[in-house]
Specification:
single chain; mainly alpha; 2 domains; 86% helix; membrane
């Protein structure tokens, strides 16, 4: 649920960056990622991993941002693997070819989510 809500926080932060702050798309995306990741960290710290040991906030936030960035890379890699490699591995019927990019997004999201949860559980909120 936290990740789902964070998607909308991310979109809202991107809109704010582009329309109110005047950042370009790429800098705005970095801004929105940091806002959404910070929101996710706060929620995980206070809701999901309530019993995590006490640690400096900045250190924990930094680790969370770092590992979630790796999770984003995992997400992108799985997306490319499914969309590009699987897409070019065979001649798919048009119905399958039409949904393959969305299937790739789902696979990438699931793998990134799994990585981020496990990294948070074992490496960030110990």
């Amino acid at each position: 649920m936290i990740g789902f809500v964070a998607l909308f926080v991310d979109m809202g932060a991107l809109w704010t960056a582009l329309n109110l702050i005047g950042l370009d798309l790429y800098v705005g995306r970095v801004f929105s990622y940091l806002v959404a990741a910070t929101f996710t960290w706060i929620c995980n710290r206070t809701l999901t991993f309530v019993h995590a040991g006490p640690e400096g906030l900045l250190r924990q936030w930094s680790r969370f941002i770092f590992f979630n960035a790796i999770g984003g890379t995992v997400n992108l890699a799985v997306f490319v693997l499914v969309a590009v490699k699987l897409g070019s591995a065979a001649t798919w019927p048009s119905e399958i070819a039409a949904i393959l990019p969305y299937f790739a997004v789902a696979c990438g999201s699931a793998s990134g989510l799994a990585f981020n949860f496990l990294a948070s559980k074992f490496l960030v909120f110990r």
